[in-house]
Amino acid sequence: MGAAPRPPGGWGLSSKAPPLSGSRGSDDSLFVYDCINAEKKTLGNKGQDGKQTDKGSDDILAFALSPSGDYFALTDDSKRLILFRTTPSWECVSVRSVNRRCTSLIITAADDKILVADKSGDLYSYSITEPQADGKLELGHLSLLLDVALSPDDRYILTADRDEKIRVSLAKAPYCIVSYCLGHEEFVSKILVIPNYPDLLLSASGDSTLRLWEYKSGEEVHCCHLSSICGPETTKTDQKYPVSRITYCCQGGYVAVLCDSISTVCIFQLDAIAQQLVYRQQISSKHKVWDIAFEETGDLWILQEDKEAPLQLYRPCDEQWKEVTDDKGLQKMSKYLQDNWTVFEGFVGTESHYSSLYKASFDKAATYLEKQEEKLQQQKKKRKELQRASNGQTKKMKCEEPSL
After folding, report:
1. pLDDT digits 0-9 by tens, 144-191
2. What is the residue range of 121's domain?
3. In contact, 145 and 159? CB cutoff 8 Å
4. Residue 222: Cβ-neighbour burial (10 angstroms; 0-12, 13-18, 19+)
5. Which of 84, 154, 164, 214 is a Cys-bridge partner for 184, taking CB atoms 3.0 to 4.6 Å apart?
6. Is 181 inside a domain boundary?
7. Which CATH number do you get for residue 93?
């Protein structure tokens, strides 16, 4: 589930579990699109690879708003890519089929393509100018893709996968790999090219770290361990902090990070000269936090698992974010969410999907000794069986000896 950053003149909202997306336009009307009513696949339809497509649910898996705010795209569990135009008013432009269920998508700054990452490790591009055209395979990983990013000038495509890799490719020739950003020890969950410092990449991982990169060379310039910041908030010594959302505010260079395992938002400030992240503040919630988004002004919106107060708004004041409750926009958006809360109920209390991405760990020495012991026991058992068989044969021979 997620709240998209506010486009010019309005609010964008999409739900990752329920089949609904919506936006508040400049005229204060609420646009709601229910994926249940979208064009359905039939059993006779086949994907681009010629294979039969299986029928899924209408749950939204990923979504993206274009940098201009003019387009919005989403993919759902039924392997559909749905494109919307947001100006002058919201309308559905196209519904297309994708090969496999998607994990992430992004729209180019030129508003001409949608890049869609899927579970098989492939990245496809879909035209916006030709909204009915089929997708084009751009590149592939050998592992599940978890996120995709673009440089602000659309020159570089950055892809992150389950096998700790971040790959940097040329957009015009994706087969040409510029660099790899290697250093994470678990899956890379989120990546973000800093908009006003386009040579810097921010990444987050299941290894509980935030890392800053000069991505064109693949050089890591800073590493922040979230366990040292969030650790005091939990009593679990083996607690992990997989990052589920990163949002950035150009005004002040502020970075807000949401961890999937705790109801706390951590705020950092980017020191671009020193190339490091400076910790500023934590915002804790009594409820599970679903998503976060910065406005251009620095206001921070928090979407949480609470029907009575689904949204929280924090405003910067003297480099600290303080909660605001009397904002008219907050009150209107909260009312919209409360009136449509039934579509969120299926997502309340759900377990983290990041836990299944961790690699199984084991003690190699202990496993080796266990196997050796098992092998030894099997050998002993075999020797005993051979000995019993030999003893039985000897007795039989004695019984068969002729009497004198």
Report:
1. 999 999 999 999 999 999 999 999 999 999 999 999 999 999 999 999
2. 56-140
3. yes
4. middle
5. 164
6. no
7. 2.40.128.630
